[in-house]
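Today's session is about reading a structure prediction critically. Students often jump straight to the picture, but the first step is always the sequence itself: look for stretches that repeat, for charged clusters, for runs of hydrophobic residues. Only then move on to the predicted structure, which in these notes is written as discrete structure tokens rather than atom positions. Here is the chain we will use throughout the hour.
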Amino acid sequence: MVSRSRANLEELQHKLVPWFQSRMPGAGDIAVSNMKPPEAGFVAETFMFRLDWTEAGQRKSQEMVFRRPPLLPVFPDYDLRRQFLVMQRLNGTGIPVPKVLWRVEQDESILGTPFYIMERLPGTTPPDFPLYHSAGSYFDATPQKRAKMWWGALEGIVKCHQLDWKKARLDFLGLPRGGTSTIDGLLDYFESMLRWVVKDDPQPVLDYALKWLRQNRYVPERITLCWGDCRLPNTLYNADGDVVALLDWDFTYLGDPICDLAWFLFLDWHSSEAYGVPRLEGTPGQEETIRRYEDLTGWKAEHLLFNQVLAPLRLAVPLVRVYKNIRSMGATLLAEDAELNNPMTQRIASLLNLPAPGRKKEVSKIEDMKVALQFHFTGAAPRDWYALFDHGRIATRDGQADGPVSTLRLSGADFKAMQRGELGPTDAILMGKIRIEGDVTLAGDLLERLIASLGSKK
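Below is the predicted structure for this chain, in token form.
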């Protein structure tokens, strides 16, 4: 089997050419170029690229997206074919999704893993990292445009819930591998995943949450298609704030639609107040959003507390896996108890009136900070270099900073790859290409801002 390596995008481009030739027998002079990762994301390995070819004497080109399973598995049963089928069968239903092309390539001798190709649609998504309430297209929008983007995402969720999923041939989602679409099935899935993630390590808040959810489970009034990861960063918008497409169908299932609604609201909290970042003006509140959902669907948002507890559990379990991956790479988290005390466990404790798992970390906006991020570059030309963040302004200096908030050790070649857009900062951290001493979360946020700043100066 081919050895799996992420760094050499030129090699990946080269290996894709004969694959495209086999899929496009009428095409000539096929070229794959401009391959780069998206700005954020850690569940799947994704690259954007351009395909050029000649057909019937005419030169053609198309922007595309390459997707394959993650290098560091967060979910124990990641299923590439399942998400491909979901998008394939949603095409033409009125739910806006990218068009998947050809089929899932299962022959691992080609690239070392299965993969698939889909069209790349024009538009932007609010970022995961930095938080979209502190930077990016949502932050830069007017309050009126933010409200438009928010309601557009909610309307996309409603379209999923009102779809005739049997007619769309999505009944195969009723028994996804690892669980069922019922409440019991979801709890079975996340309990088995928690055991896979933590092994024998105690997780008192998450264990209590699972017990409470078991005791308070219910029979859903209706079963609908659930997007599974409905949030603004998975919504593609045009320049006017209109929805272009709904993205990331990794955890789509058939279940109670209120689970989606609670997830949407929780993820917005997690992208703002959970880290001390105020929600931006124009962003509708929870009660207003629930009323709008009820008006659009004609359904009451029943069992909301149950799903408000389930939402942070769903995020906590894979993030504990991410924390463990980061620790295994030698990075030092600012809080030693991060796997037990984090925004998700804090949220669950608050909802269920449990003792707080630890002191809540107070986080200031980067625009209000004066901090230094130290770099130690290894390789042919080792050197020390740092970036100073002073109330939103960024300056760089050679040498050692006085009291840096974090120190990053990485090769100069990988840093240049990030500047060229060939390597995402978040991916570099998760892949172990960057070793961090200090606050991993803040260092990642600062690194994203630094790379964006350096890129804008090219």
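Discussion point for the tutorial: The mean pLDDT is 85.
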